[in-house]
Amino acid sequence: MQYTIVTGMSGSGKTKVIRYLEDMGYFCIDNMPPVLIPKFSEMLSAVNGNFNNVALVIDIRVGNMINELLKQIDELKKKGYDCTLLYLDASDETLVKRYKETRRSHPLEGEGGLLEAIRTERGMLSALFNDADYVIDTSDLTAAQLLSKLKEIYAPASTGQSLKINVMAFGYKYGMPLDADLVFDVRCFPNPFYIDELKRLTGNDKAVQDYVMSFPTAVEFMKKLEDLMSFMIPLYIEEGKISLTIAIGCTGGKHRSVTMTNKLADYLKSENYDVNVSYRDLGKE
């Protein structure tokens, strides 16, 4: 089990980070008091295998209990857990600007004002800053750049595993898929439905696949679709997209769309992408 402890300055982007980690498959808890970590780790150990990656946000909102955090991290390591400390930072000027824009109050803000609260917090967190495994300064980072830095640490983009791709076959007569990012219409190709020996089969059967792909235009379509995906998917990853749904539709979602969906999925898997295949309307006829 791997633990990631996210800490750092208030307003530095910890909420965005925890959302990104959650999208990456982490089990996340925000504002966890350090004294609860031992009991929490025992509870997760009891259901070992269900929670492989855990992220906890622990910051100045817990007050003086923040001084217990390094001790609890050491205890996790002594128990054999892989535990890393990620510290989010930003300049005083940036933090002041962000608080002014959001009109929220700093957890330590009092009569001394916002800037004094930020400086007090920086002093209280200095030990965590010095002990952190990773420090990310978000002062000049866009949301996409922040996600890119997280991927460098937790999900290297070169593996393609940071993007989950769902390739879906569907039938137009049952309606367009609402959750599709990209939709391709393959009703322009000959329909196996009108071939008696193929009518009751599906695109999962070799006979149907051989028929659909026997037409040069279908082969050319698949080549162009593969080329398009090889161009677009790295751009989606670079921009920070977490999931992508590619929908391929024919009339009933049984023959042509299923064949093309399987072909595209096989290609994407060969490129080491994380691919799920679904047939939305198969069996509805």
Relevant terms:
285 residues; alpha/beta; Rossmann fold; 2 domains; 5-stranded parallel sheet; 4-stranded parallel sheet; 19% strand
Textual characterization of the structure:
With 285 residues, the protein is α/β, with parallel strands linked by helices. It folds into 2 domains: 2-155, Rossmann fold; 164-279, no CATH class. 41% of the residues lie in helices and 19% in strands. The chain has 10 helices and 9 strands. A 5-stranded parallel β-sheet has the order 2-3-1-4-5. Helix 4 (92-102) crosses helix 5 (114-124). The longest helix has 24 residues, at 216-239. The protein is elongated and about 80 Å long.
Summarize the structure.
With 285 residues, the chain is α/β, with parallel strands linked by helices. The protein folds into 2 domains: 154 residues, P-loop containing nucleotide triphosphate hydrolases (Rossmann fold, 3-Layer(aba) Sandwich), CATH 3.40.50; 116 residues, no CATH class.
